Amino acid sequence: MKKTSIYLTDREVERLAHLSERTGRSQSELVREAVSHYDPRPSRDRNFKSMGAGEGPGDSVADYSEDELLRGFGES
């Protein structure tokens, strides 16, 4: 076992002391347990379903008549 130092905020120090007192376990033991149980969340897939949905000629909707824009709207 090796000794190490960690920096904690005042709130974290208070919480660790409270947990130690409440459980009757040393602060070091609590930190070791927390580290051994730590499992970072896997990164989520960042491929959005809308990727590529905006591809097109790049012209503006202002270039189209209202009738063209509404064609097919509301149809199943």
Give the CA-based shape: rod-shaped
Radius of gyration: 29 Å
**Secondary-structure element order, N to C:** HHH
In total, the number of strands is 0
Which spans have pLDDT < 50 for at least 5 consecutive residues? none
Main sheet attributes: strand count, strand direction, barrel closure: none
Strand-residue proportion: under 5%
Structural class: mainly alpha
Q: Residue share in helices? A: 25-40%
N-to-C CA distance: 68 Å
Instruction: Output mean pLDDT.
Output: 88
Counting DSSP H or I runs of 4 or more residues, the number of helices is 3
Task: Describe the 3D structure.
With 76 residues, the chain is mainly alpha-helical. Helix content is 39%, strand content 0%. It has 3 helices and no strands. It has helices spanning 10-23, 27-37, 66-70. It is rod-shaped. It starts with 9 loop residues before the first helix and ends in a 6-residue tail after the last helix. The mean pLDDT is 88.
